[in-house]
Amino acid sequence: MQYQIFVQSQSQHSFLASVVGMSNLTTEGKTEEEAINKAKSALEAQLARGKFVSVEVSPEKESYLFLPQMKYAGIFANDPSFDDFMERLRLIRQEANQEVDE
User: Fold this and answer.
1) Could you give phi then psi for residue 22, rounded to 5 degrees?
2) Phi and psi angles of residue 9, each rounded to the nearest 5 degrees, phi first
3) Cα 66 to the chain's mean position, in Å?
């Protein structure tokens, strides 16, 4: 398997290496190569102690990312009249704001 490692310089003599997608795997080294090797060793050790599993989740139990309104996200993505609707809504709001200001 291949994993991506994100390496960043902390200073001239300090590098951090993080395994992408595994937030608890970050190592530090004096050189970029040392930080990468430490991250690789830490990843190998973690994979030796566990495994990846796939699970099926039914839509009702997903809770739409914990926000009920998320099930409506993107429903107008292919609606050709959406821009016209949004322009009309803007005009209605503008008129309502003018009435409040008067």
Assistant:
1) -130, 90
2) -85, 130
3) 15
Element (H, E) at 42: helix 32-49
The b-or-e profile of 32-54 (16+ CB within 10 A means b, else e) is: eeebbebbbebbeeeeeeeeeee
Domain ranges of the chain: 5-49, 59-101
Q: Nearest 10 degrees: CA dihedral of 28, 31, 32, 34?
A: -70
- What pTM, to 2 d.p., does this model score? 0.53
Would you state the structure tokens that stand for residue 4, as one six-digit string? 């991506």
For 30-51, the pLDDT digits (tens) are 999 999 999 999 999 999 998 8
Average pLDDT over residues 10-29: 92
